[in-house]
From TrEMBL:
Its EC number is 2.7.11.1. Keywords: ATP-binding, Kinase, Nucleotide-binding, Serine/threonine-protein kinase, Transferase. It is an enzyme of class 2 (transferase). It catalyses: L-seryl-[protein] + ATP = O-phospho-L-seryl-[protein] + ADP + H(+); L-threonyl-[protein] + ATP = O-phospho-L-threonyl-[protein] + ADP + H(+). PROSITE patterns: PROTEIN_KINASE_ATP, PROTEIN_KINASE_DOM, PROTEIN_KINASE_ST. Belongs to the protein kinase superfamily. NEK Ser/Thr protein kinase family. NIMA subfamily. InterPro entries: Kinase-like_dom_sf, NEK_Ser/Thr_kinase_NIMA, Prot_kinase_dom, Protein_kinase_ATP_BS, Ser-Thr/Tyr_kinase_cat_dom, Ser/Thr_kinase_AS. ATP binds at residue 33. CDD domains: STKc_Nek. Residues 4-230 form the Protein kinase domain. GO terms for molecular function: ATP binding; protein serine/threonine kinase activity. This is non-specific serine/threonine protein kinase.
Length: 230
């Protein structure tokens, strides 16, 4: 921690706080995700360690995954230093552009970049399991990076399906809604929901409560994207 100057808080998760930090040695800008381990059950500690190991192993293999820099333990907290994506997340980008349809070239650019990041994960037998616009990050050059692998699961050899229900309800696949085993196709479904969101500024499936939302997702019925997109 002494190698970094901590700046503004960027976000807070179930057991993690994210800050923008500056590396004192060279002034480089990064993000620090601090995960408090004190009082956490063994499963939560395992999830934290899993995120670090995943980042270390795969982030440098693709230009479209948020880069892992280093990690360290201090004061019963795990600190993960990651690439800083200056333009925030895709959800914020869409809110800032609400009311003006995104140019198709922009949609294609982000779609291809996120798709290549996802392809890299799947080639390494990793499910992301929480793909959403909040987990797509944009660099200063407005290149898209797929991030937040906190709930990612490495598929063990011989086991191509996972069964634990995780993810954000708007992006859940039909098989996840029905409690069935799922594989990388559920990530592709969520990816499709993000593409729809870029074209319409809305989720493909929405409802007043979660049960009604799950029913809509399983039905597979949604409004088509605007005619302006090919």
């Amino acid at each position: 921690r002494r190698d970094y100057k901590f700046g503004r808080q960027l976000g807070r998760g179930s057991f993690g706080v994210v800050h923008q930090v500056e590396r004192k040695a060279d002034g480089g800008a990064f993000v620090c995700k601090e995960i408090v381990l004190r009082g956490l059950k063994s499963k939560a500690r395992e999830e934290a360690s899993q995120e670090v190991e995943l980042l270390r192993r795969i982030s440098w293999g693709s230009d479209y995954i948020v880069k892992y820099v280093e990690s360290f333990l201090e004061r019963e907290s795990l600190h993960i230093i990651m690439e800083f994506c200056e333009h925030g997340d895709l959800s914020g980008f869409l809110k800032a552009h609400a009311g003006e349809p995104l140019r198709e070239a922009v949609v294609w650019r982000f779609a291809l970049q996120v798709g290549m990041g996802l392809h890299w994960l799947h080639n390494n037998r990793i499910l992301h399991r929480d793909i959403k616009s909040l987990n797509v990050f944009l660099t200063a050059a407005e290149d898209a990076r797929l991030g937040d692998l906190g709930v990612a699961r490495v598929l063990r050899l011989g086991s191509s399906f996972a069964s634990t229900l995780v993810g954000t309800p708007y992006y859940l696949s039909p098989e996840m809604c029905e409690g069935k085993p799922y594989n990388e196709k559920s990530d592709v479904w969520a990816y499709g929901c993000v593409l729809y969101e870029m074209c319409t500024f809305q989720h493909p499936f929405d409802a007043r409560d979660q049960m009604a939302l799950l029913v809509k997702i399983v039905s597979g019925k949604y409004r088509p994207v605007p005619d302006g997109y090919t």
